[in-house]
Write a sequence for this structure.
């Protein structure tokens, strides 16, 4: 029997307490073999994405160095990582922001403050129970 590699989730937010809150919300996924990675700015996020190829990126828009919209655009268009599922998790909830997220290739959009149960449900759905992302 072969074991599948761990699923990887990257949390990108410049606020340490938000990263902690999200990680705590998703901590039960550790038991299911999900590796939770974190970055506090767009530059570090892109380095981690290139190194680790996460299955899912929870991405804030307003982050230092490279904003979230640009990070998503780079992931989807420049790096051509279509299999990396990107969900914006941000306070920017206007229609314009959602449209921009869609335009740069995001797979989903959630606004802060977020419902922890909704976030967990979405992550489980995206990652799937068998280790493969579900589109």
């Amino acid at each position: 029997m072969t074991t599948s590699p761990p699923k990887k989730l990257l949390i990108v937010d410049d606020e340490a307490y938000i990263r902690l809150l999200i990680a705590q919300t998703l901590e039960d996924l550790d038991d299911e073999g999900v590796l939770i990675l974190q970055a506090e700015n767009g530059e570090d996020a892109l380095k981690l994405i290139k190194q680790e190829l996460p299955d899912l990126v929870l991405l804030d828009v307003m982050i230092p160095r490279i904003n979230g919209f640009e990070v998503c655009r780079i992931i989807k268009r420049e790096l051509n990582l279509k299999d990396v599922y990107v969900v914006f998790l941000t306070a920017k909830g206007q229609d314009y922001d959602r449209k921009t997220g869609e335009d740069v290739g995001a797979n989903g959009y959630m606004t802060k403050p977020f419902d922890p149960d909704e976030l967990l449900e979405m992550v489980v759905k995206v990652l799937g129970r068998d280790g493969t992302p579900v589109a």
User: Anything to note?
Assistant: Strands lie at 7-12, 34-39, 56-59, 85-90, 108-111.
